[in-house]
Structures are given as C-alpha cells and as structure tokens.
C-alpha cells in the first residue's frame, strides 16, 4: 500500500472522552482537528506468549464492507500507537447528538419479558414494532439490513448494546446511528498459522460457515445459526432485506478493500477473501435462491391466506434441509 502509515502515538488526547464496551481498551484523541476513538486489540491467551487479536483489522475491513453496500457506517483508519496496530473510529456524536443504544430504547417497553440487553429475536422485533420514537419501517429495515451484512462477515457479537440512535435533545430529533463496533467479525482471534491451516482444509472452512460463528441474537433461546436461519425463516422483513442487500454486495470492491488494507500479510488477505467468498456463496446466495423460489410461488397465488403461506414455506424448508450435505449435518451434530 502506497499511503503513508499513520502513527497516532503523539496525537493530542481528549481525556474527557470515555468509552464503554468490553472489546479492548479505548481512548479519545484528536487527529487532523477531529475527534476519534482509538480501539486497542484485546489479548488472546492461547499460547505461551500472549498474542493480540486481529480485532482492529476486523473493525476496519468490516466497516468498509458495510460502507461498500451503501449502509452508513463509522469512518475508520488503521494505524499504530506505541507500535501496536489500532483502529481509529471517527466520533459521530457531534453537533449536539448523543449515542443511545437499542438496549436503552428496549428498556422503555415496560411490559417486555426481557431487559434491554435481552437478545431474544421475538422480543427485539416486538420492541421495534411497539416503540414510538422512530419510524418502525425505517428501524426494521435497518435491523435486518445490518443482520444480512453481519451474516456475510460472521459477526458473533451484534447485541443490543452496539447499535442504536443519535439523539439531539435540544432539537428534539432522533436518527439512526451509523453502524459501528464490528471488531467481532472475520474471525478476529485467529492468528496467521490458524488461517493457513484453515485454508488448507475444505472441512475447516465449512465448519466456520455452517456451524460457527453464530449470531449473538437468539431464537427460541438458542443463538441463531446464520445459514440455518436464512434458509428457514418466514420473516418477510428479513427476506426483503436479503433481496435488498444481496445485489449491492460487490466482491470485487470487497477484495479491493482487503488488498488495500495495511499491516496484513498475503496469507491474511487470502484468508479474508476466501472466507467472505464462501460465506456469500454458501449462506447468502443459497438463501437468496430459496427466497426467489418462495416469492415466485406466492406471486402465482396473491390472495393466499397467511396459514397457507406458512405451509408453502414449511414445504420449501423441508426439501431444502434434506439437501444439506451430510458433512454439514455431521458438523452440527458435533457442536
């Protein structure tokens, strides 16, 4: 990469900026006259010597992937701080806007069966439908659009505390916040040796497509398996998001993002390209084919009762799940 690498070590610090969250240390700095949050990688203790996760790299690439499909996303820059790779995330709480997470909104639904951080899907969707501070349609589309991209990049930690809204109390206004906190995507705990091992084995690749990572969101008290959910759901808002987002996924753009990412090796680039290509082909492409078959069938019977619609979808699910290769079923039986 020809761009000059950025060293944030001597940037002025804004000590009044304090950030929550559990994924690594954070500090506020001023870079080129604007406020950024520096995110430091967490430590992975899986060897005799402590190693640092690739969460900074994951944050950078994943945010750029979100941006590439037309979803407003926090601006990120990779650099170093005291010779450690960090990601600088531009502060979007400016001009009187404060960030409020979805959990805060969920807590206002006083009859909800869970607290704000409960991640049961039905409870989340009920909050989206019940709340009265922002357009239900806008919020529902945002949630499912984000879910589809999270499925692509393998996000295992999108919970109610890391997406939300920007609120301006003096103006009495609210809008959706840019997507942020994507450090738990793209297998951040894998070191280069682990990536190389996976690239040499189709079984290792498939295990990380069909079995894990799962979503942090739960359905029937079980973490959602992206492949299984997208190939069985009858949630029309989810299926519409799949139809909406899938055409915007440009693998050439995504591969260019990876190629231009500083600090990463050729093996890392190959790993990210390979896993994203497999996740798109084996999760999103397959789910879209099912979605198109269901849509075509329903279009032929526009006045069908909802009960009959569910029956058709159940029939599709039965046929599709029977076609899952035995190796995938074996993976599932082991976990």
UniProtKB/TrEMBL annotation:
It comes from the Bacteria. Keywords: Kinase, Transferase. Signal peptide: none annotated. InterPro entries: HipA-like_C (IPR012893). One of its GO terms (molecular function) is kinase activity. Pfam families: HipA_C. Residues 32-195 form the HipA-like C-terminal domain. This is HipA-like C-terminal domain-containing protein. It comes from Oribacterium sinus.
């Amino acid at each position: 990469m020809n761009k000059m690498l950025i060293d944030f070590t001597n940037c002025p610090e804004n000590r009044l900026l304090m950030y929550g969250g559990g994924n690594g240390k954070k500090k506020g700095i001023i870079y080129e006259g604007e406020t950024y949050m520096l995110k430091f990688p967490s430590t992975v203790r899986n060897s005799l010597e402590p190693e640092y996760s690739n969460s900074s790299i994951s944050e950078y690439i994943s945010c750029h992937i979100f941006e590439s499909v037309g979803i407003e996303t926090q601006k990120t820059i990779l650099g170093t701080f005291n010779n450690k790779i960090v990601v600088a995330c531009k502060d979007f709480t400016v001009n009187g806007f404060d960030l409020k997470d979805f959990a805060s909104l969920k807590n206002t639904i006083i009859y909800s069966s869970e607290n704000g951080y409960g991640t049961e899907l039905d409870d989340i969707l009920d909050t989206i439908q019940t709340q009265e501070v922002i357009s239900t349609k806008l919020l529902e589309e945002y949630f499912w659009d984000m879910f589809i991209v999270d499925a692509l990049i393998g996000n295992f930690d999108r919970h109610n505390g890391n997406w939300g809204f920007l609120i301006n109390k003096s103006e009495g206004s609210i809008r959706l916040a840019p997507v942020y906190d994507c450090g738990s995507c793209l297998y951040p705990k894998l070191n280069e040796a682990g990536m190389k091992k996976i690239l040499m084995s189709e079984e290792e690749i498939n295990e990380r497509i069909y079995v894990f990572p799962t979503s942090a969101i739960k359905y029937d008290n079980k973490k959602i398996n992206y492949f299984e959910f997208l190939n069985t759901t009858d949630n029309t808002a989810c299926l519409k998001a799949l139809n909406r987002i899938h055409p915007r996924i440009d693998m050439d753009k995504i591969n260019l993002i990876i190629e231009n990412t500083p600090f990463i090796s050729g093996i890392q680039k190959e790993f990210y390209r390979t896993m994203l290509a497999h996740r798109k082909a084996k999760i999103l492409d397959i789910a879209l084919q099912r979605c198109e078959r269901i849509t075509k069938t329903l279009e032929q019977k526009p006045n069908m009762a909802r009960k009959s619609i569910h029956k058709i979808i159940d029939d599709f699910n039965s046929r599709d799940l029977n076609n899952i290769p035995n190796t995938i079923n074996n993976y599932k039986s082991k976990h």
